UniProtKB/TrEMBL annotation, chains A, B:
InterPro entries on file: ArsR-like_HTH (IPR011991), HTH_ArsR_DNA-bd_dom (IPR001845), HTH_MetalResp_TranReg (IPR051081), WH-like_DNA-bd_sf (IPR036388), WH_DNA-bd_sf (IPR036390)
Record protein name field: ArsR family transcriptional regulator
SMART domains, per database record: HTH_ARSR (SM00418)
GO molecular function, one term: DNA binding
Residues in HTH arsR-type domain copies: 11-105
Organism placement in taxonomy: Bacteria, Pseudomonadati, Pseudomonadota, Gammaproteobacteria, Oceanospirillales
Keywords attached to this entry: DNA-binding, Transcription, Transcription regulation
Pfam families to which the protein is assigned, alphabetical: HTH_20
Annotated organism of origin: Vreelandella nanhaiensis
Top-level taxon: Bacteria
DNA sequence: ACTTAATTTCGATAATATTCGAACTATGGA
DNA sequence: TCCATAGTTCGAATATTATCGAAATTAAGT
């Protein structure tokens, strides 16, 4: 018998994206910073993006970003690689993420 | 001596708009509904937009919308006329408000 | 002046969120 | 198998926010 793979994260389908929740997710400075870094870097592990913050705090924020559909996380070995679901976001909310990400400060 | 006019609302200048606060303001369902109605109607008084909600609650939400720069309020007689500061928003955050307002649901 | 209408401010309560340490889980080596 | 690494989950403390009634404010009308 095969072992079940490590329980994958639930990434909501585009049809379940909710505008209010997305805006809320992006209204937190820590999360907006995460999203900006992911935009610059393309992808990054959770650990790379903590600014000295505890892991539990970061994990909390990543979960919110995943829940609203902004971030995709895949497990590679023991690290979780995160990236923005830009295409999905753009198909559901055209122009919105771009309009936010052009704001660099 | 002239009486001072009724203390006007403080409407922040465009330079003081803060992205995170704007996103936060729009992440509340009641406030997003207000903004959508203002977009449709062009302008409206506070009373026109309560959905049966208490006035103090509406006043709270309007203040937040004013504070982030989304809404302009002018006193006309005893009513407060509200409208969206679309041009100001667009100059500070190009495309952002539009990308949100095209989402009608 | 007095009254009404529209809204704001105050104060309290309830609901939500953020933060973070500690314990737990999964994966990859030694 | 034992250990280290990377994250997650749990639980509790703190902080923010939403909601709403009651009282205060402002302007207009009588």
């Amino acid at each position: 018998m095969y072992d079940l793979p490590m329980r994958p994260f639930k990434h909501p389908p585009v049809s379940e994206f909710v505008l209010e929740r997305l805006l809320y997710a992006l209204s937190d400075p820590v999360r907006l910073e995460i999203v900006r870094h992911l935009d610059e870097l393309g992808e990054a592990s959770c650990g790379e993006l903590d600014g000295g913050r505890p892991k539990s705090t970061m994990s909390h924020h990543f979960r919110i970003l995943r829940d609203v559909g902004l971030v995709h996380t895949q497990t590679i070995g023991t690290t979780h690689m995160n990236s923005l679901r830009k295409d999905d976001m753009n198909s559901r909310f055209p122009g919105l993420l771009d309009a936010i990400l052009v704001q660099k400060e």
